[in-house]
Write a structure and sequence with these properties.
The chain is α/β, with parallel strands linked by helices and 363 residues long. It contains twelve helices and 13 strands. It is globular and about 60 Å long. The structure holds pyridoxal-5'-phosphate. Pyridoxal-5'-phosphate binds next to helix 3.
Length: 363
């Protein structure tokens, strides 16, 4: 037997993250609706800032991301001292779990919660615990019932990916009040920029109210900058201090910082992105209904479409769409084998999806 290095307990229990596909058979240009990337693409001003900063790529970035944190603070009315930036919110999810949980500890999230939570939990050697959902929505009372002395963190994606559902500001407050005070509540608000419901809250007031709640945000979805890897946390001072100790000193590139500042300043592009999404959120499910298909109610930039268990199945639809160079996201890995998640893309793209699904249902 050869002796070889073995990873820490937990690492080999990780089911590696499988990203949305980006190519289709035949090498045609695909319609990529598998990763919830903003339909309008990035702000032209962000692209310009990125190109300008390319000349300086021999310089290390500002490790404190001072200008970017100031721009985030200004745009969202927050205190820049309580913001920490990361290489995508995925990095911040991993850092929070690494900092607060280890072997013997539990990390709690809901049944259809985002897959990065179990991945980062196993990587830290901690134990993932899930609470059942009701009607494809996080169930606050079920989460509270699963929390105990070992629960170091509780993650709630709000809105959730892949379901598209959200819990109200009142439910979020009930969750915070019902969780033990030693449990760090992480509100992953990756799609907050899209939500216009007035009973929704991204959680800022809960972060402000104590020392045990964090809000995570990203530039990957509505800002359509996933390729640059940029996310941020809004946190109480004690958690900011912890994140700044465990993160890499230069975890956010200078190019991402420059593009992020420019994107935040381009309010017109943000308004256009939100307005486009509102239109698609109303139009696309109505078109599906005409085909006898239904989508779960969503407040994000994607919908989860339900297919019959036999005949016109989700797996068959996935294959049919792929053959038409349309890439949806299969979500069987979430325990949702009868659904496909489809990002709300540009209008022309969504019309192609409707045409393809029309043929699929007739075929
Ligand atoms: C996309 C997504 C993220 C991760 O985004 P980053 O690209 O890492 O910033 C985090 N949480 C949820 C719920 C997401 O859908």
């Amino acid at each position: 037997m050869t002796i070889r290095p073995e990873p820490k307990p937990g690492v080999m229990e990780i089911s590696p993250y499988v990203g949305g596909k980006s190519a289709v058979p035949g090498g045609r240009k695909p319609i990529k609706l598998s990763s919830n990337e903003g339909a309008l693409g990035p702000s032209p001003k962000a692209v310009e800032a990125l190109a300008k900063s390319a000349m300086d790529m021999h310089r290390y970035p500002d490790g404190g991301a001072v200008a970017l944190r100031a721009a985030i603070a200004k745009r969202f009315g927050l205190d820049a001292e309580r913001i920490v930036c990361g290489a995508g919110s995925d990095e911040l999810i991993a850092l929070l779990i690494k900092a607060y949980a280890g072997p013997g500890d539990e990390v709690l999230y809901s049944q259809y919660g985002f897959v990065m939570y179990p991945i980062s939990t196993h990587a830290a050697g901690a134990t993932p615990v899930t609470a059942p959902e009701k009607g494809y929505r996080s169930d606050v009372e079920a989460l509270i019932a699963k929390a105990g002395p070992k629960t170091k963190l509780c993650f709630v994606a709000n809105p959730n990916n892949p379901t598209g559902s959200f819990i109200t500001g009142a439910e979020l407050k009930r969750l915070r009040d019902g969780l033990p005070p030693h449990t760090l509540l992480v509100i992953d608000a990756a799609y907050a920029e899209y939500v216009s419901r007035n009973d929704y809250s991204a959680g800022v007031e809960l972060v402000d109210a104590g020392a045990n709640t964090v809000m995570l945000r990203t530039f990957s979805k509505m800002f359509a900058m996933g390729g640059l890897r940029l996310g941020w946390a809004y946190a109480p001072a004690n958690v900011v201090d912890v994140l700044n100790r465990v993160r890499g000193p230069f975890n956010v590139s200078a190019q991402a910082q420059a593009a992020g500042v420019a994107a935040l300043e381009d309010l017109a592009h943000q308004d256009a992105s939100r307005a486009h999404n509102e239109r698609m959120l109303a139009w696309f499910p109505a078109e599906l209904a005409k085909l006898g298909l239904s989508a779960l109610p969503s407040v994000g930039n994607f919908v989860l479409i339900e297919f019959p268990k036999a005949g016109k199945t989700a797996a068959a639809a996935n294959e049919f769409l792929m053959a038409r160079a349309i890439i949806p996201r299969a979500v069987a890995n979430y325990g949702l084998p009868d659904f496909l998640r489809v990002t709300l893309g540009a209008e022309a793209e969504m019309r192609e999806v409707v045409a393809a699904l029309t043929d699929f249902m007739k075929a």
